[in-house]
Amino acid sequence: NAGVTQTPKFQVLKTGQSMTLQCAQDMNHNSMYWYRQDPGMGLRLIYYSASEGTTDKGEVPNGYNVSRLNKREFSLRLESAAPSQTSVYFCASSEQWGLDEAFFGQGTRLTVV
Amino acid sequence: SQQGEEDPQALSIQEGENATMNCSYKTSINNLQWYRQNSGRGLVHLILIRSNEREKHSGRLRVTLDTSKKSSSLLITASRAADTASYFCATAFRSNDYKLSFGAGTTVTVRA
């Protein structure tokens, strides 16, 4: 019962470096999401994939790209990291887009120096 | 932009007491969900209440929804130290394509 698995759990990047955050779910869910969480601001949606083969921008997409590799996997890429992208990133999935509960991964704590 | 606003921002109670937190929102919703986050962990779903429902229970949790006031409350009865966490409300509404929109959360500390 792995649920939603994110890798890595921690990462430190230098400004300008790139990296990809990986996310996989084993619940056969249709929808997947990437959020970032900053102190005092709750969670903000970066990108989402309502179903396999589709991706859309959320509230704060600038500086990020995503790939829905297959139904299980949804990756988030930072092409040129900036200090403003220091945050905790959460991947989540759900069966029915917005209409039922979302299951979250344990998060990736990213620091950009 | 955040649709849900939790109140209070922080709450400290004694073990065994009840904890109540509120969520207000701006736009008519399809559903409202409550999540818990323990320190350093991911969010865990607690309860989903749909716009045509007024109250739901799950164990020691009770959620109410008042669509006329655009508000919801989460009550935790007989709190335990393990209830220490941050609690978030999230709303899904049609004009936002049902994307879950989270508030900033209420931090609850249960003192032994």
Order of helices and strands of chain B: EEEEEEEEEEE
How many strands in all of chain B? Answer: 11
Number of helical runs of chain A? 0
| Beta-strand content of chain B | over 45%
Please provide the ordered H/E string of secondary-structure elements of chain A. EEEEEEEEEEE
Radius of gyration of chain B: 13 Å
Average the pLDDT over all residues of chain A and give the rounded result.
94
pLDDT < 50 runs, ≥5 residues of chain A: none
Q: Let me know the average pLDDT of chain B.
A: 93
Number of helices of chain B: 0
What about the largest sheet of chain B? 6 strands, mixed
Strands of chain A, total number: 11
Radius of gyration of chain A: 13 Å
Low-confidence segments of chain B, ≥5 residues, pLDDT <50?
none
Describe what this molecule looks like in 3D.
The complex is a heterodimer of chains A (113) and B (112). With 113 residues, chain A is an all-beta fold. Chain A is 0% helix and 50% strand. Chain A is built from no helices and eleven strands. Chain B contains no helices and eleven strands. In chain B, the strands form two sheets. In chain B, strands 2, 4, 5, 9, 10 and 11 form a six-stranded mixed sheet that branches. In chain B, a hairpin with a 2-residue loop joins strand 6 and strand 7.
Summarize the structure.
Chain A has strands at 4-7, 10-13, 19-25, 31-37, 43-49, 56-57, 64-68, 74-78, 87-94, 103-104, 108-112. With 113 residues, chain A is mainly β.
